[in-house]
Amino acid sequence: MITFFCPNCWKEVKETDTVCPHCLANIAELLQQRDYVAKLIAALSHPEPGVPIRAAWILGKLRARTAVQPLLALLQGDADQFVKAAAVEALGQIGDTTARPVLLELAQKGPVLLRNKAIEALRLLQDS
Fold first, then answer.
1. In the chain, what are the domains?
2. Please, is 24 exposed, middle or buried when counting C-beta atoms within 10 Å of its C-beta (0-12, 13-18, 19+)?
3. 4 with 13: CB under 8 angstroms?
4. pLDDT at residue 32 is higher than 80
């Protein structure tokens, strides 16, 4: 069975809902108004960890600079370490140097997984 989520608050909704019963967002309107990158950025806060991981990966491949601040915010939150690792990888692929201070901090003080990903991301930033 497929689970549907509101693209605004990420709470579960019925497939037939046109308005979210939780946040009252117009689901169809939100989906039509947002471009692909905006939808991916919104997916970074999805409750199922696989979704933000895939979204971060795609944002990195697209080198979507508009995703830099949302990815940095994700690193400051309480997301799963694998989600954070995907965000760090994406930041490296995007190549925006505004991520450098956060990546440096993670490379020095982060958990091992994030430390290694941050070192890789910093190498990518040097090459760009």
1. 1-33 (no CATH), 35-127 (1.25.10.10)
2. exposed
3. yes
4. yes
